[in-house]
Amino acid sequence: MTHTTRAARVRLDNGGRAPWHPLAREAFEQALDDGWADPRRLHAEGRRAAALLDGAREAVASALGARTEEVVFTPSHTASLHTAVAALAAGRRRVGSRVVVGAVERAAVLHAAEHGGLDRVVVPVDGSGRVRSGEMCDAVARPGTALAALQHANGEVGTLQPLAEVHEAARAAGVPVLVDAGASLGHAFVEESWDALAADPGDWGAAPGVAVLALRSRVRRRSPFPEDPDPFAPGGVSVPAAFSAAVGLQTVLADREAQDERRRALVDRVRTRVAAIPDVEVVGDAVDRLPHVVTFSFLYVDGEALLTELDREGIAVGSGSACTSSALEPSHVLAAMGVLTHGNVRIAIDRSTTEEDVERLLGVLPGAVARVRAALGVEGL
Questions:
Q1: Among all residues, which ones are annotated catalytic?
Q2: pLDDT score recorded for residue 325
Q3: Distance between CA atoms of 22 and 248, rounded to whole angstroms?
Q4: C-alpha angle with apex 57: 55 to 63, nearest 5 degrees?
């Protein structure tokens, strides 16, 4: 009898939840022994946990070019973004209630910017997903602007944003800028053009259940929460998860340039080969982008059906909006760019992704697209 071995699954949906980095996992497991106690307690166990947490904050601050006291850990990336918008807007409530955001910001930012009486002003983007910098600079300079929010790069299509230019205009107007680096930190160089910054350790392979929020000391803020020893993470966070985040970040930054070259080459291969499939649109800037993200959309294809077809082939990819893909709703990012919003595939290549993984996707994708089109009654394309 002949036995065949089923091919291992290929995971190409690593944005926001990458597989464990081995050293981040090791750090988490080691910290379970010394970091289990409440770091606010004064006994020996509490002091050991506090030392781990302080060390983690110091390491993350060093990576960001910030002071240790400017970095806190929160329960999630969404919590970091919500807290930052609320805290900075509250700190500048006497100035006004306008919050200027780019059209392709994460849903958490877009929703927070119109919550609690805030007046959201949305700046459009071009066809590559880059915010129109001139319009955003003009918007942040208008009277009554409390805050501007601009991602470092779009996690759905990979396009880098004109952060330095916008931050310079905002500083001249005295307006703080919140930068969402959730898709960037650990993958690309993040300049220090920010007043508040949020990052997601899960994106670089660290423990889930914790996130980073950095707030420059010079920025006025007011905690949106009731009185608590930690005004930005009431109740505290997991010390082992925070320690894992710090170790993981130090590790991925150490070989970021080497990983950048390797992953850019893989993404370029995907962009070139996918473009040969009929009626496809590869979106996002081809050059000025994150090294590991690529998105493309197919005409006459249902996104959910295509995901299911690829999943049957043992390949996991993303689709729809990267931050609300569980609902498979049309992507607000792609809609803002004016490109196809259906039949969408989003790939985020992890550090462990191999050439063989990418070739397997490229080998099965044309057939999967053809089968979905045939099922919809569209053939011969």
A1: 323
A2: 46
A3: 9
A4: 105
